[in-house]
């Protein structure tokens, strides 16, 4: 029996708070020795695009810069650095293949290191994970 702890995260929105929350949780878990799998679907898929710069939703959008400055003050890296760290730590980052087709997003539009996976494939991974989180 495999004793490796596994965490599965689904990200379905592309806002700043969802982006940062998913990457901070993934990176923390990976740094603790947990095998991490993050599945980006629907609007969360936008976070995998090259140059992604997520913002807060609605009127809160105006405060995105303020949040970025506050996070930097306490030592929290920005989203692109969080993604870089995730890849360095071996976090498995997946793009939903069906959503890619729906939103006309191609693999070459995304940052390096992204795997394309269908919902059934990710559900197999999630079923074997001790913890499953939905960030959406």
Task: Describe the model.
- This protein has 136 residues and is an alpha/beta fold.
- The protein has one domain (6-135): 3-Layer(aba) Sandwich (Hypothetical Protein Ychn, Chain: A).
- It is built from 5 helices and 5 strands; from the N terminus they run βαβααβαβαβ.
- It has a 5-stranded parallel β-sheet, with helices on both faces.
- α1 links the parallel β1 (6-11) and β2 (35-40).
- α1 packs parallel to α3.
- The protein is globular, with a radius of gyration of 15 Å.
- It starts with 5 loop residues before the first strand and ends with a strand.
List key phrases describing it.
Hypothetical Protein Ychn, Chain: A, 136 residues, alpha/beta, 38% helix, 5 helices
Shape: globular
Number of helical runs?
Answer: 5
Low-confidence stretches at least 5 residues in length (pLDDT < 50)?
A: none
* Gap from first CA to last CA: 32 Å
Q: CATH-wise, what's the superfamily?
A: DsrEFH-like
CATH class: Alpha Beta
Specify the CATH architecture: 3-Layer(aba) Sandwich
Averaged pLDDT: 94
Short summary of the structure?
The chain is α/β, with parallel strands linked by helices and 136 residues long. The chain contains five helices and five strands, in the order βαβααβαβαβ.
Strand and helix map with partners:
Blueprint: E1 6-11, H1 16-31, E2 35-40, H2 64-73, H3 79-88, E3 92-96, H4 97-102, E4 115-117, H5 119-127, E5 131-135
Parallel strand pairs: 1-2, 1-5, 2-3, 3-4
Helix pairs in contact: 1-3
């Amino acid at each position: 029996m495999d004793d490796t702890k596994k965490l599965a995260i689904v990200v379905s929105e592309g806002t700043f708070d969802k982006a940062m929350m998913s990457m901070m949780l993934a990176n923390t878990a990976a740094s603790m020795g947990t095998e991490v799998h993050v599945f980006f679907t629907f609007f969360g898929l936008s976070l995998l695009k090259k140059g992604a710069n997520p913002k807060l939703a609605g009127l809160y959008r105006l405060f995105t810069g303020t949040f970025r400055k506050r996070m930097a003050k306490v030592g929290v890296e920005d989203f692109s650095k969080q993604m870089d760290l995730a890849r360095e730590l071996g976090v498995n980052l997946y793009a939903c293949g069906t959503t890619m087709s729906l939103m006309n997003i191609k693999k070459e539009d995304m940052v390096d290191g992204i795997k394309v996976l269908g919902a059934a494939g990710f559900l197999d991974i999630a079923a074997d994970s001790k913890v499953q989180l939905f960030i959406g």
